[in-house]
TrEMBL record:
Protein name per its UniProtKB record: NADPH-dependent 7-cyano-7-deazaguanine reductase
EC number(s) recorded for this UniProt protein: 1.7.1.13
Active site: C52, D59
Chain positions recorded as substrate binding sites: V74, E75, S76, H93, E94
Domain of life: Bacteria
NCBIfam families per record: QueF-II (TIGR03139)
Keywords from the named record: Cytoplasm, NADP, Oxidoreductase, Queuosine biosynthesis
Catalysis: reaction(s): 7-aminomethyl-7-carbaguanine + 2 NADP(+) = 7-cyano-7-carbaguanine + 2 NADPH + 3 H(+)
């Protein structure tokens, strides 16, 4: 039974090359092992990087992705590879943050999803980007994302 569930995965347990771009990255999914039970899944990527599309300079963010699964979970190795595919990808903070959320929604069909993109300052201004698909389902514990706003040294 377990082999059948995971037989379609192409990255987990395999040597996998880094995708050349977010568009080339494959996000894989697995069946939700607790369908009908409302619960939250959280992924934290404190060292997310992308490139400024105008200057080519690196941008850094702390991403927090929360979702209440629908029929599927995102397979974590594929998510890691997808997120690291942004390292050589030029896009504004807003496009990265919202684009990641929309891609996950398309691939795994969650009941609810939110993402917090806590971007470190470049040019003296931090930019935080937040997106969610709607109201959170009732009866699910959804903790604060726990990332302090940027305060610099003061």
């Amino acid at each position: 039974m377990t082999e059948t569930i995971y037989s379609g995965l192409t990255q987990l347990g395999q040597k996998t090359e880094q995708p050349a771009s977010p568009e080339a990255a494959v996000l894989e999914k697995v069946p939700n092992p607790e369908p009908g039970t409302p619960y939250l899944v959280r992924f934290t990527a404190p060292e997310f990087t992308s490139l400024c599309p105008l200057t080519g300079q690196p941008d850094f963010a702390h991403l927090v992705i929360d979702y209440v699964p629908g029929p599927y979970l995102v397979e974590s190795k594929s998510l890691k590879l997808y997120l690291t595919s942004f390292r050589n990808h030029g896009a504004f903070h807003e496009a990265c943050t919202v684009g990641i959320a929309k891609r996950l929604v398309k691939e795994i069909e969650p009941q609810w999803l939110r993402i917090g993109g806590y971007w470190y300052p470049r040019g003296g201004i931090p930019i935080d980007v937040f997106y969610q698909t709607g109201e959170a389902p009732g009866g699910v514990w959804i903790p604060d994302q726990g990332v302090e706003p940027y305060r610099g040294r003061g």
